[in-house]
């Protein structure tokens, strides 16, 4: 009888041990593979015939993590391109490769909005707040963009901005990354060597002051003047709808100048763009910025 009890006890212990191990052995208990997810990063390498090597940004779930992206649009992309990847399947790292593999359903551009700066010119000293709703993500701001945006600062008629900590600024600065399809239905194709003269004319036509235009040109000219040609289109609602400004109190006059351009080796025929006249009346806010984009 004692032998029978010992055998039963051993069976119970074995069954208990098996039950404890069973959840680890069943794949169904593991988290399912990611589906319909989006990551973003920079292409660092292309592995023929269909795989892009992507270094993820920290916000994409990995601080510099590398993944392999399999895509049918392999030839469309270049090393150095910033892209978003929407993928429908993910394979874990294995012995064959130390990197995760994403099966892309779509790869699309991440466009950098470079150096938009915002000037505020009230008629008398005025406490202001500015919030930006961006169809994308902010990558840099100065002064720091808080949970309530830029808030509680005082703007003066000469454009000086004084924040609650006593620090002074002459403008608000931000950069961001967006997924936007820019409008090149109208615009200009300009020789690189003619870029300075063109920008002086185009910015004055849109209403920037000489100082504001100087700051725009100082930033963009070194990036454009050595190109054989630049195809340029100043964006309107495509930009303002994707980067919405909420300013309190509301300005009487608001001018937002945003240039999208891409370099090209040959001249491009396009319909010339026309500009609306801008009048500075009362509390005036002016913003300028731009982005180099891929050719459509």
Outline of this structure?
19% of the residues lie in helices and 42% in strands.
Q: How would you portray this structure in words?
A:
This protein is α+β, with helices and mostly antiparallel strands and 296 residues long. It has 4 helices and 17 strands. A 7-stranded mixed beta sheet has the order 8-12-6-17-16-14-13. Strands 1-2-3-5-4 form a 5-stranded mixed β-barrel. Helix 2 packs antiparallel against helix 3. The radius of gyration is 27 Å and the shape is globular. It starts with a helix and ends with a strand. About 8% of the residues have low confidence.
Question: Which structural traits does this protein have?
Answer:
4 helices; seven-stranded mixed beta sheet; 42% strand; 17 strands; single chain; globular; five-stranded mixed beta barrel; alpha+beta; 296 residues
Topology record:
Blueprint: H1 2-25, E1 37-47, E2 51-56, E3 66-70, E4 82-91, E5 100-109, E6 111-121, E7 126-134, E8 136-142, E9 150-155, E10 161-162, E11 168-169, E12 172-178, E13 188-191, H2 195-206, H3 210-224, E14 229-235, H4 237-242, E15 243-248, E16 253-264, E17 284-292
Parallel strand pairs: 3-5, 16-17
Antiparallel strand pairs: 1-2, 1-4, 2-3, 4-5, 6-12, 6-17, 7-9, 7-15, 8-12, 9-10, 10-11, 13-14, 14-16
